[in-house]
Design brief:
Layout (H helix, E strand, L loop, with lengths): L2 H9 L4 E4 L15 E4 L8 E8 L10 E23 L2 E2 L10 E2 L2 E20 L11 E12 L9 E7 L3 E7 L2 E4 L24 H8 L21 H5 L5 E10 L6 E4 L1 H6 L1 E17 L5 E17 L7 E16 L14
Antiparallel strand pairs: 1-4, 2-4, 2-16, 3-4, 3-16, 4-7, 5-6, 7-8, 8-9, 9-10, 10-13, 11-12, 12-14, 14-15, 15-16
Length: about 350
């Protein structure tokens, strides 16, 4: 169903909140999401994360940060759909036309999500003693994916609203796409912007260490290349299934139009989460999956820019540190089998 057809359908009905179901055409480009996604049998340990954090060291040391790398597993649940959400508006005609003012209501379809992430293994450089053990809860995020069925700006038809317990809320916008075959995973520069790109400079010693010794987490295979925070996209590029029939792309960027991130004062002062760029690829495989759907896998690449410490050059602003997360999951259950929420006890 095209967006204009869906918008017309939404205009003719009242708003409803209901359990999402697989293949619901009312969701438009979000229709493959309802259900439970996990690092299942084929995707164990495929979540990887890197983040630079302010870290106090000796007074005469230039290293005032630590680089933390994690291996993780994730549960991502999409369970509730809110249909025909009306945004009321009017359109003013040209005064010379003599035409009356007209209603211009937008109709949005939303899908809620609950994301929970538990650590499998972690290291940092310099060693802070704070990387934490296995099974540590390291992320929880409730939010919404939106499909804006009509009156979009610059063809932006999807949005992501997320809230993070650190004290961040985000709105990312994007344009969905669907095409035959697998996607192309873009390259990501994991080095900070506004410092130096020289891995031998000393200031980037933590990056140099993990570039030379990629983090392997719990993977025992001696042939596994490991996670390199200098090029954090490589494991996604190398992990693409060979039988992808069709791909749906859901991109979300906080620098488009009036999107953005809002943080509590401590975050703004210490390590401001300034921008986010994330891409979700939903892969339809040539094999059976959950219910009547084909086997579905999800790959994502997310890069959050954290601003802290003065730049090395004369440009305004602060050093921007990439905080990159990647994962490959599979749909394991329909939405009616989702847990209300998977709690992760303290360890």
């Amino acid at each position: 169903m095209s967006s204009p057809e869906l918008a017309q359908k939404m205009q003719s009905r009242y708003r409803s909140v209901e359990l999402a179901h697989q293949g619901d055409e009312d969701l438009g480009p979000l229709k493959l999401l309802p259900g439970v996604w996990k690092n299942g049998d084929r995707t164990r340990g495929r979540g990887w994360n890197m983040i630079a954090l302010p870290f106090a060291t000796e007074p005469d040391s230039r290293l005032n940060y630590r680089l933390l790398v994690n291996q993780y597993e994730e549960t991502l649940q999409f369970t509730t759909v809110d249909k025909a959400v009306p945004n009321r508006g009017i359109q003013f005609p040209n005064p010379a036309s003599g035409d009356p003012t007209q209603e211009m209501d937008q109709f949005v379809v939303t899908l809620d999500y609950q994301q929970s992430i538990a650590q499998l293994a972690a290291e940092d450089r310099p060693d802070s003693g704070k990387a934490g053990p296995a099974d540590l809860a390291i992320h929880h995020e409730p939010g919404l994916f939106l499909h804006m069925t009509d009156f979009t700006t610059a063809d932006l038809d999807v949005a992501r609203l997320g809230t993070v317990p650190h004290g961040d809320s985000l709105l990312g916008l994007g344009t969905a796409d669907t095409f035959t075959g697998p996607p192309t995973i873009p390259a990501v520069d994991g080095l900070p912007e506004g410092a130096t790109k020289d891995l031998d400079s000393g200031y980037l010693a933590p990056y140099r260490h993990y570039h030379d010794n990629p983090f392997k987490g719990t993977v025992p295979d001696p042939g596994f290349p490991g996670f390199d925070p200098v090029h954090p996209h490589l494991l996604l590029q190398g992990g693409m299934p060979g039988n992808v029939v069709r791909t749906t792309v859901l991109p979300f960027n906080t620098q488009l139009e009036d999107a953005g991130i809002v943080n509590i004062p401590f975050i703004v002062k210490q390590a401001n989460a300034a921008v986010m760029d994330s891409i979700f690829w939903i892969l339809e495989l040539d094999e059976p999956g959950v219910g009547d759907e084909p086997k579905l896998m999800m790959m994502y690449l997310q890069n959050v820019g954290l601003d802290f410490f003065p730049r090395f050059d004369d440009l305004p602003g602060l050093i921007r540190w990439p905080h990159v997360s990647i994962n490959v999951m599979e749909k394991v259950a329909p939405p009616e089998e989702a847990e209300p929420y998977t709690l992760m006890p303290a360890v």
